[in-house]
Amino acid sequence: xxxxxLAKIAVAALEDxxxxxxxxxxxxxxxxxxxxxxxxxxxxxxxxxxxxxAAEEALYHAGSKARQIEGNKSSTWILMDYNDIIIHIFSxxxxxxxxxxxxxxxxxxxxxxxL
Length: 115
Fold this sequence. Notes:
By secondary structure, the protein is an alpha+beta fold. The protein has one domain: Beta Polymerase, domain 2 (2-Layer Sandwich). The protein is built from four helices and six strands, in the order αββαβββααβ. It has helices at 3-16, 45-61, 92-98, 100-103; strands at 20-26, 36-42, 68-70, 77-82, 85-91, 108-110. Strands 3-4-5-2-1-6 form a six-stranded mixed beta sheet. The longest helix is centred in the middle third of the chain and has 17 residues, at 45-61. The mean pLDDT is 96.
């Protein structure tokens, strides 16, 4: 399965759990660590956990297993590494604080509808 297809599956799973402000950044031209960053935020810890569970389950059913997951049930930033895609799930406050979109602004923003 291509990284684009995996990104579509991950975005759909996050959106199914009402993830807010889902962004996809194509970093293939600027970094070897992955093809895409997917960034989303949730309104509370239960939603953040539900978003992680949904993405993990959807990608597992698509045949992709996480290489590493950082964060736990009380975390306000969860990082899910699937080799070609890296998913960042934040609380609103942490997303504003870390501002990955600014840090990775040299990447290409992808409209989630165009994945």
